[in-house]
Amino acid sequence: LYWDVNLSGSRVLLEAMAAAGCRTLVFSSSATVYGIPEQVPIPETAQVQPNNPYGHTKAAVEQMLTDVATSNPGWRVASLRYFNPVGAHPSGQLGEDPSGIPNNLFPYITQVAAGRLEHLRVFGNDYPTRDGSGERDYLHVMDLAEAHAATLSYLMQQKGDIQLTFNLGTGQARSVFEVIKAFQTATGIAIPHKVCPRRPGDVPKLEASPELAAQVLGWRAKRSLEQMCRDGWAWQQANPNGYR
Ligand code: UDP
């Protein structure tokens, strides 16, 4: 399914864009293209070595974009490698509504807070990290949206034949226990949790070097972890059963 939607879907989109004379594209890629990173914080020059099917499809689309942009004139393309986007629009009207039981930490936490799930499972407290739990570079979806707008403005100012890749993160990794604590500080709600074994395929720590985006686009993530928690919770409260 990832290959069909991500790769075939992107290929068809590029064909339609070429036919319509539209050659400017911002692609939503992912930090998962780095697999188990060789260095942390991760710069854009780090080796692309995905270790799961989703990551392989994102890396393949990036490669396809490179090939299109280098072998045809006029393309302006940016691949944005997202770290861990979380939170919601501050209105509480736009948020994340995963189908079934959430896999990701943030929607799981907001569903525990809403009483839909009993407790959070902390996947491992024996990683070589500050407190033993996994560390990730969480960024607010509104910061992510602003990065897209900044990227598009930048591309539109270029004459053509440009291909860029940016990491999008805050540059500051936070642990699972830190997220649980920040959620309580931001919302007043304690999240019951139990330490469980590590989840297969998880890496100890992911953290962006966001310096290239700052230099080229003038973009930096501004919103705090507490804001991510507050806005994510506002959406969950307004939509206790998701959009249904
Ligand atoms: N995590 C956890 N319990 C959960 C979901 C995630 O402890 O129910 C941990 C996970 O092991 C990782 C971090 O939270 O260290 C972020 O996981 P998520 O799935 O949100 O993002 P990703 O693994 O894609 O970075």
Report what the structure shows.
With about 240 residues, the chain is α/β, with parallel strands linked by helices. The chain contains 7 helices and 9 strands; from the N terminus they run αβαββαβββαββαβαα. Strand 1, helix 2 and strand 2 form a beta-alpha-beta unit. The two termini are about 25 Å apart. The protein binds uridine-5'-diphosphate (UDP). Uridine-5'-diphosphate binds next to helix 3 and strand 4.
Strand content is: 15-25%
Radius of gyration: 19 Å
User: Share of helix among residues?
Assistant: 25-40%
Instruction: Name every ligand kind in the structure.
Output: uridine-5'-diphosphate
**Overall 3D form:** globular
Compute the number of helices: 7
Describe the largest sheet: 3 strands, parallel
Low-confidence stretches: none
Physical arrangement of strands within the biggest beta sheet = 1-2-7
- In quaternary terms, these chains amount to single chain
Structural class: alpha/beta
Q: What sequence of helices (H) and strands (E) makes up the elements?
A: HEHEEHEEEHEEHEHH
What is the arithmetic mean of pLDDT?
97
The total strand number stands at 9
Distance between the termini: 25 Å
Descriptors:
single chain; three-stranded parallel β-sheet; 7 helices; 9 strands; 40% helix; binds uridine-5'-diphosphate
